[in-house]
Design a protein that fits this description.
By secondary structure, this protein is an alpha/beta fold. The chain folds into 2 domains: 4-71, 2-Layer Sandwich (Histidine-containing Protein, Chain: A); 79-150, 2-Layer Sandwich (Histidine-containing Protein, Chain: A). The chain is 35% helix and 28% strand. It contains 4 helices and 6 strands. It has helices at 4-19, 46-57, 79-92, 119-130; strands at 28-33, 36-43, 65-71, 101-106, 109-116, 137-144. The radius of gyration is 18 Å and the shape is elongated.
Length: 155
């Protein structure tokens, strides 16, 4: 039986997920047991899965998260194919100058390296990579021209 505190956390988490337009809550269930938040269900992309976890981490009272979300459209792709798909997506993205960005992929994890002209381009490139089918995680080592890594906003 859920304690009063578990029910409060569950309600807060559900509200946070419902407010986030990146998330389709209709196929996600939230359960809290002894302060541990369990996410179950299906999501359309790694970006949606990441957004859900970000929302939970920003919710007061949430400690441990057990992520049991399944990627509906997960496509297992070779490292080369995945890196190529991210590169092609960035080429088509008018908000990102993809030339200085090196892209590596390993077992669904995409790593971005290089320099970009602005913090907005950095964020756009990172966000874009999350939406590529087959991506399970994005690691960014992108640096912004004129900024030291410690100067960047901590969001």
């Amino acid at each position: 039986m859920a304690t009063h505190r578990d029910r409060e956390i569950e309600e807060q988490v559900t509200r946070a997920l419902r407010k986030d337009s990146r998330i389709d809550l209709s196929e996600i269930s939230v359960h809290v047991d002894n302060g541990i938040v369990y996410l179950n269900g299906t999501v359309d992309s790694a970006a949606e899965k990441k957004a859900a976890k970000e929302d939970l981490q920003a919710t007061a009272g949430v400690g441990q998260i057990v992520d049991r979300l399944i990627l509906r459209n997960y496509i297992e792709r070779s490292d080369e194919e995945l890196a190529h798909s991210v590169k092609q997506f960035l080429i088509r993205d008018i908000d990102v100058d993809e030339h200085p960005i090196d892209i590596e992929a390993s077992s669904g994890v995409v790593t971005l390296k290089g320099r970009v002209a602005s913090y907005a381009q950095k964020m756009e490139a990172e966000c874009a990579a999350w939406w590529i089918p087959g991506v399970t995680d994005v690691i960014s080592h992108l640096e912004v021209d004129g900024l030291e890594p410690t100067d960047e906003p901590d969001y």
